[in-house]
Amino acid sequence: MTIDWVALFEQGGPVLGVILLISVVSLAVFLERLVYLRNGYHLPKSLLNELKHLGSDQANEVIGRLKHSNRPVSYLVLKMLEYQSHGSKETAERMRGPMTMVQKQLMRGVDMLSTVASIAPLLGLLGTVLGMMHVFQTINTHGLGNASHLAGGISEALLTTIAGLLVAIPTFVAHKVIRNRSLTIMTAIESELDNVYETLFLEKRHDQI
Question: Can you give the residue range of the structural domain that contains 98?
């Protein structure tokens, strides 16, 4: 048995079209976030060791390696090296801005997924109401004997309800996956930065003593 998708779409009405549109948006956001968040967010141990014994002859090489990395943690380490000359306390203060920016980058799209998961069932409910209005208008115009007209309104109501739930449930799961992944990565980045901060300020100070 083949499904006539065009007829199905026509039965669902304009609300079904809106639900399908936001489902495409949701899927696109989810896939983009998966690709963005799949990269590792840890610095190589060799680089941490180089930072510990960083000299003027090595600085350009290390900075070049960090600039060629697309990891947010590399960007933050670069900013920390940039602020290093201001001292440990001021460096920690100045890092708040870059940290906030990276956090926003990691969490980008999370609100969109949450919004889609929230409004999809409401759109389905709207389609249900419009479908039932169509049913009552048909009854008022043609009476209860016109089964084909009644079926059209009922189909519209059922299709939009089902479509809204089919979009909302996986989008809700996608929202949780992306949000938890982003928070996990942010925690890992903070841990890496603590190691770099300790390497640049505490360990070097200890070595100088």
Answer: 5-208
- Among 100, 84, 104, smallest CA distance to 92 is for 84
Q: Do 80 and 196 form a contact (C-beta atoms < 8 A)?
A: yes
Identify the sign of the CA torsion 136, 139, 144, 150. negative
Distance of CA 134 to the CA centre of its chain: 38
Spatial separation of the C-alpha atoms in residues 85 and 133, rounded to whole Å: 70
What is the rounded CA–CA span in Å between residue 207 and residue 84?
Answer: 17
Token pair for 160: 């939009």
Tracing tokens 């360990």 back to the chain, one arrives at 203
State how many domains the chain has. Answer: 1
Check if the beta carbon of residue 134 is closer than 8 Å to that of residue 155.
no
Whole-model pTM: value is: 0.76
User: Residue 108, SS3?
Assistant: coil
In the chain the first and final C-alpha atoms are separated, in Å, by 81
Q: Give CA–CA dist 19/116, Å, rounded.
A: 9
Contact 66, 78 (CB under 8 A): yes
The 3-class secondary structure across 155-195, one letter per residue, is HHHHHHHHHHHHHHHHHHHHHHHHHHHHHHHHHHHHHHHHH
Q: Which residues contact 130 (CB under 8 A, 6 or more apart)?
A: 13, 15, 156, 157, 160
CA angle (63, 65, 70) in 5-degree steps:
110
Chain segment 100-152, per-residue pLDDT in tens = 998 998 899 999 999 999 999 999 988 888 877 777 776 666 665 555 656 66
